[in-house]
Amino acid sequence: MRFACRSAGAVVLLLLAATDSPGAARWLHTPRNPPQISPPTDRAPITAALEVWTNQPLGDLPRLFRPSAMLTASDDAAKQALAGLPGALGAVRWGISRLLYDNRTSPQFMKVLRAMCPPLKTLAGRGADVVVCIEGTPWWLSSRQETGPAGTSGWALFETSPPSNASDYQDFVFETVRLLEREAGSGLSFEFWNEPNSLSFWRGTRAELFSTYDAFVRGARRADAGARVGGIAVGSWENPLASEPTGSPPLLQSFIQHAGVSGTAPDFVSWHAYASGAEDRWEGAWEIRRWLAEAGLAAELPQVVDEWNLWSTFPDPADPARDGLKGAAFLSAGLFGMDRAGIAEQTVSTLQDFSDPRAGEVFTGDFGLLTRSPMVKKASFHLWNLLALMSGSRVRVDLPADVADLEGVGALATSTAGHVALLVGRLAGDPGGAVLRLLQRDGYRSFHDLGITRQQVIDYYLGTAALPAGAPLASRAAVEAAVSRVRTGWASEVALQISVPGLSPPLQYSIYRIDADHLNPGDAFARALAQGLSPDQALAAARALERFEPAESGTGALPEIRFGLYGATLVTLASAAP
Questions:
Q1: Taking the complete model, does pTM exceed 0.85, yes or no?
Q2: 117-128 pLDDT, tens digit each
Q3: Beta-bridge mates of residue 30
Q4: CA atoms within 13 Å, Cβ hemisphere of 380
Q5: Burial of residue 400 (number of CB atoms within 10 Å: 0-12, 13-18, 19+)
Q6: Are residues 449 and 286 in contact, defined by beta-carbon separation less than 8 angstroms?
Q7: What angle do CA 197, 202, 206 make, to 5 degrees?
Q8: Distance, CA of 238 to CA of 270 (rounded, Å)
Q9: What is the average pLDDT across 386-415?
Q10: E-strand stretches of 75-122
Q11: How far apart (Å, rounded) are the C-alpha atoms in residues 232 and 186?
Q12: Is the model's pLDDT at 386 over the cut of 90?
């Protein structure tokens, strides 16, 4: 990703959001200016019990929940901040397109690539799955050696064009993979291309794309017979190739069909997911498994979502919510949604903001977990800090179904050597997400399972149409019940009473909160400016909430954990009994 305003070609919208972008992936898409049917958000606070069962381990903490990020445009200080987190990292994604743009000969490219390897080696040493995206055609191999942009955001035309000779491209991949494994270490993952569904990243045909992929796989496995390869990092799992007619099949589905018969089967499948609703995208995981099985490949092939983030302002790339509390709550809810869908890994887009701010600005609504200049840790980076404190075995957490489905509360707990870490997040105000969670609870993992289209569910929710008479009766009843419950709204506050039967009281605890007043520099900066303070004073207020420290610590009975509409909290616990 080179440009800050890059078109994802894959933006997914909340139940009541709207876009007419032809490239947008429509999860719960509605027409522009839909009727405003917003559930009330001021129901009385509720109290619920949450139980952590340390005697019921569920296996190792999934890599999905370890701190992970796309590294595009991130400077050394940002990479050091990620590497400085405690515990093991999850995954990082780094691509070669910028190096290809800047270096127009093979010797130049290989020299610069070698210089990029030490930080990748450092991150791999911290346990990260380093996903190297072999993206773009080198200038010296391209069938179209034009250097102008392929779109308003994306690559140069030569990078988006097919190679003139597949054998030469295979040799390029061979040399690239061999150098990376020699300099950064074995065990890297190699991903083919980036968002080839978009004209900003691919200007060839579907057949040319797949033949280039075949050359990529053969080159990588010439360098290392055990090389872990995958792709194709589509902008959205259901996007067709932009150059093909409306109604063409999803590019990822065609890729999977090709891989099933070509002898170049991937070790993982990758896709992207920008959305305004944290639950909007994960149906894709179930559809992809169906496509894999139909192609004769393993249905449980690992899936990697290696670009994702909140994007409620599409096509405007700046979304101010990313800078504060809602941005962190969105990522927390997204992780819980991916976990339910069985997604193996993720790399959020992105570690650091793409663009430098204007004078006097710090937080610009960019995609990063960190601002650019000066570098400040956003609330979303502190969510990664909470995850970094979790280790050991994942253990069972019991939470009332309504609290999870309607109130948007998710929880994750780990236990090791008598110490428990419990992460709880809340993202309320999301009717689309609540409907989807309720339908999943009833066993409908996707609209394909439901037998009712997303548009038909939307029309019913908005009151503009009845559900289709020919739809399965059980599906109609599930949609009617879900919509009826979501229309009652959500509580203005949720208070959780936490118990851990496996720990003997009294308990020694620390509570880390991401809320309006803790670990939330972006909102502190905005409040300070709104109060008439200078940019320097606002930055000082942000820095005060940047320090990572517990909001509360003590010994004895654990206090209730309270959430407004958005937030995330980590509780660390151990028995203080002698």
A1: yes
A2: 999 999 999 999
A3: 18
A4: 32
A5: middle
A6: yes
A7: 65
A8: 12
A9: 97
A10: 91-95
A11: 22
A12: yes
- Pairing of β 409-416 and β 393-398: antiparallel
Quick check: 310 and 47 in contact, CB under 8 A?
Answer: no
Please provide the size of the chain in residues: 578
- Identify the sign of the CA torsion 197, 199, 202, 206: positive
Q: How far apart are the first and last CA of the chain?
A: 55
Given a contact cutoff of 8 angstroms between Cβ atoms, the answer to whether 420 and 500 are in contact is yes
Q: What is the pLDDT of residue 10?
A: 29
**Ordered domains of the chain (ranges, CATH):** 46-51+396-429+492-575 (2.60.40.1500), 62-392 (3.20.20.80)
| Degrees to nearest 5, angle at CA 195 with 191 and 198 | 155
Beta bridge partners of 224: none
Provide mean pLDDT across the span 217-230. Answer: 98
Collapsing DSSP to helix, strand or coil, 431 comes out as: helix
What is the helix (H) or strand (E) element at residue 288, kind and residue range? helix 283-294
Model confidence at 34: pLDDT above 90:
no
Give me the sheet containing 393-398, strands edge to edge.
Answer: 552-556, 507-514, 566-575, 419-427, 409-416, 393-398, 46-60, 494-499, 561-563
3-state helix, strand, coil in the chain (%, to 5): 35, 20, 45
Whole-number average pLDDT of the chain: 91
Q: How many helices (H) and strands (E) does the chain have?
A: 18, 18
Long-range contacts at 54-58 (CB < 8 A, ≥ 24 apart): 54/395, 54/415, 54/420, 54/500, 54/501, 54/502, 54/503, 55/395, 55/501, 55/502, 56/395, 56/396, 57/393, 57/394, 57/395, 57/415, 58/393, 58/394, 58/395, 58/396
